[in-house]
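Field reference: "sequence" (input) and "structure" (output). Example, TonB-dependent receptor domain-containing protein:
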Amino acid sequence: MNRNILSLFLFLSFFTVFARNEAPLGTVRGTIRDEKTKEVLIGCTVRIDGTQLGVTTDVDGNFTIANVPAGTQKIVISYISYKTKEIPNVRVESGNTTVVETELTVEGQALQEVVVRGNRATNTEIAVITEIKQLKPIAVGISAQQIQKSQDRDAAAAIRRVPGVSIVDNRFVLIRGLAARYNSVLINDVITPSTEVDTRSFSFDLVPSNIIDRMIVYKSGSADLPGDFAGGVIKIYTKRRPEQNFLDAGLTFGYRNNTTFQNVQTQASSGLNSIGLWNASQQVPTSFPATSAAFNALNPLQRAAYARLLPNTWGLQQATVSPDIRFALNMGRRFDVGNVRISNLTSINYATTNQFSNIDLKLYDNGTIANAVTQQYNDVNYARQTRLGILHNWSARFSPAFTLEWKTLYNQLSTTETVIRTGAQVADGYDVRSYSERFENRSILTTQLAGEHTISPLTKINWVGSFGYTGRWEPDWKRARYLRATGATGSDGQPAPFLLATPNDPTPTEVGRFNSKLHEYVISAIVNGEHTFGNPTDREPNKIRFGVYTEQKNRDYSAHFYGYQAVGGASAAKQRDIATIFAPENVTGSDGSFSLLDGTRDRDAYKGINTYLAGYVSGDVYFGPNASLTLGFRGEYNDQGIKSNVNGVETRLVTNKIFSPLPSLNFTYKLSEKTNLRFAYSSTVNRPEFRELAPFNYYDFNLLADIQGNTTLTTAKIQNLDAKWEFYPSANELISVTGFYKHFTNPIESYLLFQGNGLAYTFTNAQSAQNYGVEIELRKGFQNSASAFLQNLSVVGNVSLIKSQVNVGDFVKAPDLSGTIQQYDIRGIADTKRALAGQSPYLINAGVYYAAPNSGWQWNILYNIYGQRIFTVGNSQNPTVYELPRNVIDLNLTKQFSKKIEVRVGIQDLLNQAVRFAQDFNHDGKIGSDVTSQTAGADQMVRKFKRGSYFTASAIYTFGRRTVIP
């Protein structure tokens, strides 16, 4: 495998050298200043006339244009409110650098009288590095330009290139080793709701990469950032308005090893499922009695009559998996209505993807013998996902002092998952065959109206009004389990038939149909202001920032579970296969057939209400030209409540009203124009989510576990310290080293209940925790190299070393299986001290990028790995489970043909190493290399599967020609 990787790298290197334009090339660099003040100008556009070569000046007013054809060139420099300048007859020599130092003259009109027709670039690597350098908090980021180079399909794949960031389940982000619950995610400066019902997390795969302008990850707090975080605040900015008119379309085909063109078994689907919707046949009829008491009071014949109203869709179909398909249509338009510049950006994305996995799953008797298996299964898992996404943004620039924007992002998603489980309950002497047939539908909408106002040269105001909606439906999740005695045979000597397990009382672990629905509405209003004291043209003017943030969130969740009941012995009926066992003639309620029972409880429905009010103020204090201090204070009031039925009466079970004072401090000292030292302190919080508080009990079929909320959870408090050294050798280069320390009071952690049968998790407040580490980041280019090949090469890498420890305490307060709150003494039962759940001791990301603009070729090699991290917290009966490291290598190649066609090919997860989960049998806080061995004290593999390497081929076509707007 290593030889193959080396061969691919050498091939790409040779191919690039062979394919690039061999015409003599040189470099042009320089600095642009204001003619009068001599201040450097940031964001000037510098281009070589008659070519596609051009850049913007960085924070120091510098620019570098590589690969300029040798000869005499004309340089054109433009900047808002300045006269465009042309410099003819600039001599460019092959292999040499030509230096241009020049100044721009202000237009004859005052700035407030100039009609602005351009926008500062924000989506390039230089722009993001410049933004990070100017920010007061400690931050890192990734630009649309780098995402395009990496060919990352969505925000989840792109953000793992950022220092200190890792990804769980290809969707959820961990920052500095802290679980997704410790992140705050904003889209266009508005807090996003959790996209998951059972955890606090945002699914980053919902945001296609082609709509991203940039992503900034704040590692330290400041007054203008939400206070509910410990890992980081992630701001996703979607593209705002186009710089030119365009219309392009892209089509991608994907092939995955072990999935594409394989024969699989899957459940029936309707035509609406292909666009993420469900139809009337995939839901419980409205004629069913509303309560379980009313339903179960009926006799078996009556209940069976209702059961026959449910479609018999249990049968599985054979299918051949088609290649994945992704389609994107993007359009940008700019036009004037009088003196108002109108811009529109629209992006439509559709994707159908497939994933097949053969999963080895084991549970153990954790006594004195290692690897004494009690349950052993093979899960054949096939999932088909669809996504329809729409980005629709309008912008109206009425004047340089007033801009109005309307931004809408909508995602419609569905997952059709079929699991066939075969194996044995070894300890009980049973062979097992189980089925899970699930369809999930989600709708996520966020729409915003935003305004930017320049009240005066000294005062600016911006505001946002936002509405968000999240809907999630599981209309008919079917589950069934067949059993037979291991080794049992019939009278004919053949293996005995499997019999459907039908308990007397409905339970989610056995046969039945589960459905749920969730509606969540979020209304937000935000106002931010900034006032500059003194002369706004000063290099470091004194500023004060202030603002308010209000949010009202309402969630309504309900679930129903119906379990099948055997009437009489029903031995013959129980032997039928999954396709025919619930045929109408077999569900009559008479002796020897099936009826239905309603297993729904009052706590299977809840309402969540949350009112959030925040205000902040911050200001800058300058100690000469090299030192600045930003002091801030943010006050947050949060009123959180949970309502649920208790004995048929809606009762408020949770009332959490808390005011959190959150001071922050950010200090920057400039060692030189290219080197900074930063120090930061902030106080933040971490609030429980609705699902973590709700007493609802949810069964996870794939993990064989129950998950239940805890109404006694309280808000965690975190103290954060950061220190960073950063060096900017050039506009697109960076070297930085960051150290951090965090102390938690009452951190929220998952807790495994100690019980004799099965796995049951809840959430608890531990006493305290700490998390500390160091991050190193490098971005290196070779623009000044004499080699044209090296001029086109750049290297990006980062390493994070992290350590954490949580002190759970001797006692925890948590619900038992009935939902009753108990005080548990965990001494001798569970670890009272361990690493934080989800924390990786190390993270490594690296990438080599090559881009030759004259030839249109680009390629890159990307690498990622994380250290073993706690997946689920355990106890003496069921030890803690860790997710083990896996090396991931991606390769990508792009070719631009003229200005209309771009072709991309890529290989993701080239090594295809197994995803592995192992439990810490010897309780030493890590998984040893002897995992799965039979020696005493060996750790145990509990789950293992391969996703398969993923091959993609894309084509993007631009219709007509891109029209540049002056």
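The mean pLDDT is 85.
The first helix runs from residue 2 to 19.
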